[in-house]
Amino acid sequence: MPRRSPRRLRAGAPAGPGDAVSTLLIGTCPGPPACTAVHTYLFVDGLDVITRSDRRMAGLAPGRLLRPGGPLHPTDAPRTVAVAAEVGPDPGPDRLTVRVRLRGETVVWSDLMYPGADNMVVDEVRFRLDQYLGEIERARTALPAPS
User: Fold this and answer.
1) In degrees, to the nearest 5, what angle opens at C-alpha 145 toward C-alphas 139 and 147?
2) What does the angle CA 11 – CA 99 – CA 85 come to, to the nearest 5 degrees?
3) Are 122 and 99 in contact (CB under 8 A)?
4) Where are the beta strands (DSSP E) in 16-105?
5) How far apart are alpha carbons 136 and 24 in whole angstroms?
6) Which has more pLDDT, 145 or 14?
7) C-beta of residue 22 within 8 angstroms of C-beta of residue 47
8) pLDDT tens-digit profile of 42-52?
9) DSSP-derived secondary structure for 83-134
10) Is the peptide bond before 62 cis (omega within 30 degrees of 0)?
């Protein structure tokens, strides 16, 4: 039987759970009277990441998170991004953060800690770059114009 190169062995290896590709959906709350302020919802594979991570938190303002070149836009250098703050009359000092980085055509969010659909802890998710950037742009353009 001929020997196979390590590259060929890796290429034929089954994909593990860390190789799964997730889908991002971004929603926004319009603010009063529905709630105290305009904020974002971040859904990964249909699950509200912010609420599942910490019920005391609410997503930051869409204008802050979704602006072109803003904090959710991936770069080659990993960066820690605040995506939510403690709810109250004023945003509290506690923040929910996500580490965002770009690996080729994949956006990776790490340093997560929320229960997935199977109640197992999700600590990292991966998105296809085109879907990820498309969703940020869709959510940004869906925002009402500032008055």
Assistant:
1) 145
2) 145
3) no
4) 24-29, 39-44, 47-48, 57-59, 79-86, 95-103
5) 9
6) 145
7) no
8) 999 999 999 99
9) EEEE-SSS--S-EEEEEEEEETTEEEEEEEEEE-TTSPEEEEEEEEHHHHHH
10) no
